[in-house]
Every structure is written in C-alpha cells, then in structure tokens.
Amino acid sequence: MGDPKRHHKKYETPRHPWRADVLAEELRLLGEYGLRNKRELWRAAANLRKYRTIARSLFILSGEERKDKEGNLIGKLARLGVLSPTATLDDVLRLTVKDFLERRLQTVVYKLGMAASIYHARQLIVHGHVFVGDRKVKSPSYHVMVGEERLIRVLLPQLTKQEGSS
Q1: Per-residue confidence of the chain (166 residues) as pLDDT tens digits?
Q2: Looking at the structure, do residues 90 and 111 belong to the same domain, yes or no?
Q3: How far apart are CA 74 and CA 151, in angstroms?
Q4: pTM of the predicted structure, to 2 decimals
Q5: How many CA within 13 A on the CB side of residue 36?
Q6: Final residue of a domain: which of 50, 76, 98?
Q7: Pick from 50, 78, 98: which residue ends a domain?
Q8: Would 4 be classed as within a structural domain?
C-alpha cells in the first residue's frame, strides 16, 4: 500500500515533450477544458492508458474468463460515463483523452450551464460553491459518475444588505 507520506506520480510525461504537434494538441486541450497545467492532462492520459492496457490484455484470453473480465471492464467504464453499457472491447480501444476530460466536474458544471465559462466553473468549484449531492467538492478534477450529474448544484452565498450597500 505504501507510506501515506510518500506521494506517487499518477501520470507519465510524454516521451518526446518538444514535438510541435504534441505541444499544439496539449495546448488546445488545456484551453478547451480549462486545465491548470499539463499535469492534469497527463493524469487523464494515464487513466486512459490503464484501461486500454487492460482491454488489450483481454484479447488473448478466451472463454468464460474473458467474458467475465470484459463485462467488469465495460461495466466500470459505463459507471464512469465514458462508454455505453452495450460497448465492446473495440470501443474501449477507441476511447480518447477527451472522453475522460468530458467527465471532470469542471467540464460538467460548465456544460450544464451553471457557469459562464470553463474558467468560471473552476473558480466556483475551488471556492467551495459546488455540491455533488450533500458533499461539497473542491476538486475540479473530480470524476463525475453517471448518476451524479443530476445531483450537482451550485450554491452562491447571498449578499446581505450591509455587504451590498458599499
């Protein structure tokens, strides 16, 4: 399990970080999804890589074992909201980083129209104005599960007459 004081990286940096096409694509995704830095993008890419690796390893299995593990993987990705429950292993291999970035709380709050921009959504979340169910979530990278979308609310503090008069 590891020492709780020792943090482990949850991402890998690109093998060729200075390629112009990679830099341009990363910069475009950073702006489109309002990410703070490339580390957030790399974390989503690492998550995608993990599920794609599992899917590739299932292609060599056969029979009941493959069917069970395939069902578990697709069920997990369906609960995460990146695939439909009727998907196949080929659909898992077709996933992109954008599919995971679309499920971040920051993006969902913006897409639901609760914020004026993607950056405004991030600010609302970090300042503690966004609730998922009864829980206050302060992490813009929180992964919204399928059933949680309807539970998201934004509660802004009301200005009192004294604060608003100045």
Answers
A1: 567 888 889 999 999 989 999 999 999 999 999 999 999 999 999 999 999 999 999 999 988 999 999 999 999 999 999 999 999 999 999 999 999 999 999 999 999 999 999 999 999 999 999 999 999 999 999 999 999 999 999 998 876 666 555 5
A2: no
A3: 24
A4: 0.88
A5: 11
A6: 98
A7: 98
A8: no
